[in-house]
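Exercise 7. Given the components listed, write out the predicted structure of the assembled complex. Treat all entries as one system.
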Amino acid sequence: MNVYALMFYATAVLITAATVLAITRRQAVHSVLFLVISFLGSAMLFYLLGSPFLAALQVIIYAGAIMVLFLFVVMMLRADHGEENKFPRRFWVPGLLVGLLFSGALWVAVFSDPSGSVPLNLTMVTPKEFGRFVFEQYWLSVEIVSLLLLLGLLAAIHLGKEKGRVERGQE
Amino acid sequence: MIVPYGHVLVLAGIIFCLGLVCVVARRNLIMVLIGVEIMMNGAAIAFMGSGLLWQRLEGQAFVLFILGIAATEVSVGLVLVLHAYRRSGSVDPDTYNVLKG
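Answer.
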């Protein structure tokens, strides 16, 4: 086992542990903070898998912008007061059954495939190469994503208007 | 070499399953959105690994698109949560069972 494999497994353990902690916290703020750690771990993984540009984007967009958006909304809602309903006890058995079945199928699918044991070679893609590739081969998808972002912006502005607050105050 | 390709896929599968558990088991719309984010992150890890296996740039390009789509999804999803909270005063998805506008 060389140093890169060691880094990969350490990062994998970090990501998994942070994600498990994130999805089990009672308070949404704690969960968002653990999720930031998880996304920083994914950025390290992207760096290891050969793309420093995407690692930087992961830090800036995921761990920076999206998580701050979550924090803002959690603090606006003040939803941490109420006791959260538990997952109904009678659904645990079918849920576990489906989960085990899914895990078994995933395990078989990954390890019966001969390419599953192919070792990954260390490469690095510079941002220049990556940018040239994206804007030469996938310029249409870039346009579609930009249009999608514009639509998201419009939807957020339209739905975010405070129309319902007056009605709720009168009740 | 780093690790076998299967190990990256297993990591991506574990992350995806954790996100799925969060979506299904939590009774808080914020946590449901967080679960969707975790699932997208798992998909991005799988794309990175496969891009490295075949030494093609498509995997990384799709990670870029996943980032854009996740940003859109989160902004629209959070504003819908805010909208629902203003109308019903709760973020529990089980309380949205009244069809009256």
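Discussion: The first helix of chain A runs from residue 3 to 24. Helices of chain A lie at 3-24, 28-48, 52-77, 92-111, 127-137, 139-159, 164-170.
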